[in-house]
Amino acid sequence: MQVGTSLYGMVGPMGIPTHITEAKKVVCVGGGLGVAPVFPQARGYKEAGAYVIGVLGFRSKDLVFWEDKIPLRLRRTDPVHQRRLGRDEGFCHRRHQGCARRHADIDEVVAIGPPVMMKACADATRAAKIKTMVSVNPIMVDGTGMCGGCRVKVGDKVKFACVDGPDFDGHLVDFDDLMVRLSRYTKVEKEAHERWSESCRMTKQVGAAALDALGARHAQAELLELPDPFEDAPGG
Ligand code: FES
User: Fold this and answer.
1) pLDDT in tens, 116-161
2) Residue 220 has pLDDT above 60, yes or no
3) Nearest-angstrom CA–CA distance, 93 and 106
4) What number does the ligand 1 atom closest to the CA of 146 have?
5) Which of 28, 35, 45, 93 satisfies CB 3.0 to 4.6 Å to 120 for a cystine?
């Protein structure tokens, strides 16, 4: 999305809000885009008085985002340790294991990122029975619990991530099934993306001339002047 593009509609929020527990020491693991949703959770736990350890990983330096926001914000909310910039999601898992060795009193782990990373985190905490919450992001269609597209096997139950999740007990999620389901449409997604790249009208709407035509130049300027949404967040 860029300034000037438009959406037909938007629905939300969906699912069950994240529950910030009374855990005293929490490890928040974010991989890739998972860094974005794990950030408010880390902040929530910090505000609740927990000792928060952040483990953040990106596949490559080019994919790092919020570099300005996260180090400053998290340092300000010490004690928070950060480990950024891994070569792959395995980085998160290794760092997470390192934390577990140094901190024997971890109460809870929150892991958000690629399924393979969340699976590794859940496996690492299983033997020690450390509560590990993951946030799954299966393919969604209607987002209202009717189509079943987002179903996830959790223990002996089938859950719909859009209404029952997205947070689940990582020790119960069937990650192998989740990964199979996520890859089921890879071929048609690739074909659709290629078609989109060739013919999507949105890509032609966001040039300067198009913004003028839409009267959106002004809106763009206003958007740039909006305050940082995390600026005034307590502890944020
Ligand atoms: Fe359809 Fe969840 S997206 S049931």
Assistant:
1) 999 999 999 999 999 999 999 999 888 899 999 999 999 999 999 9
2) no
3) 15
4) 4
5) 93
* Distance in Å, CA 181 to ligand 1 centroid: 13
Nearest protein Cα to ligand 1, atom 4: 145
- Please give the model's pTM, rounded to 2 decimal places: 0.71
- The answer to whether the CB of 162 is under 6 A from ligand 1 is yes
> Are residues 135 and 37 in contact, defined by beta-carbon separation less than 8 angstroms?
yes
Per-residue model confidence as pLDDT tens digits over 10-24 = 888 889 999 999 999
Query: What's the CA gap between 128 and 140, in Å, rounded?
Result: 33
Residues of the chain with CATH 3.40.50.80: 25-140+161-182
Ligand 1 pocket residue status of 142, Cβ below 6 Å: yes
Q: Supply the CATH classification number for the domain 25-140+161-182.
A: 3.40.50.80
- Give the number of other CB atoms < 10 A from CB of residue 77: 18
